[in-house]
């Protein structure tokens, strides 16, 4: 089967699409702007650059494996070969360029002979909500260009020696068209249910990252506490109150006593006095986030 090739030209270095002299919009930037505007706001520029470079290298390696076979040049490429063999994934097109020939264009990472669409990802966390939009738009443009109906949407998630094939849920055609129309008109896409879903997905990812950071911080804090306890015992034996190095000052603070008021007991035994000194403070409402246990 030969798929219809688009007249759109892709400038790989600048990552820009042209139909003649007219520049078309890529899908990635549009999705980020419309649905995930703060997705990478807290990530350092250098980290983003390195991640993009690695992702590009892995994409190229997988493409060469599909087109030419041979020995992979990355761990992810080797993992991809195993995954291909495990699921018997065929090769029809790689970096298949699709467009509506007017506003938008994008490259689909892989199309197999059954017309399933794939996207390669090498990110630390797989963003299924983002992929759902990306691949759903890919499917719509694929249909416009070829007149064929793409079937299933998949992510091929490559992390070192691990490769996972993940089915991606498709967005409704109505929502895909609404998003593209909003972008064409220069408007902000406004579909509360979908927008909220995207925001919740981002919130979950952020909360998971915070949990991992806290767990790591707790581990190092426990290590620090153990080391300080050992140093304190040595300082007590040596009757030393301070240790100073080129990088640290360790001070042994002697035990002290503090005085506080047992407010619960006071409320019970002297309620009139407590009432006299009560102070009412306003507390702002807030959103409480709870991660469900699996």
Protein described:
It is a single chain. This protein is elongated. It has helices spanning about 25-35, 45-70, 75-85, 130-145, 175-185, 190-235, 265-270, 270-275, and strands at about 10, 15-20, 20-25, 95-100, 105-110, 115-120, 155-160, 160-165, 240-245, 250. The protein starts with 8 loop residues before the first strand and ends in an 18-residue tail after the last helix. Helices cover about 45% and strands about 15% of the residues. The chain has two domains: about 10-190, Alpha-Beta Complex (Lambda Exonuclease, Chain A); about 190-255. With about 290 residues, the chain is an alpha+beta fold.
List the helices and strands and how they pair.
Blueprint: E1 9-11, E2 16-19, E3 22-26, H1 27-34, H2 45-68, H3 75-87, E4 93-99, E5 104-111, E6 117-121, H4 128-146, E7 153-159, E8 162-167, H5 173-184, H6 192-237, E9 242-244, E10 249-251, H7 263-269, H8 271-276
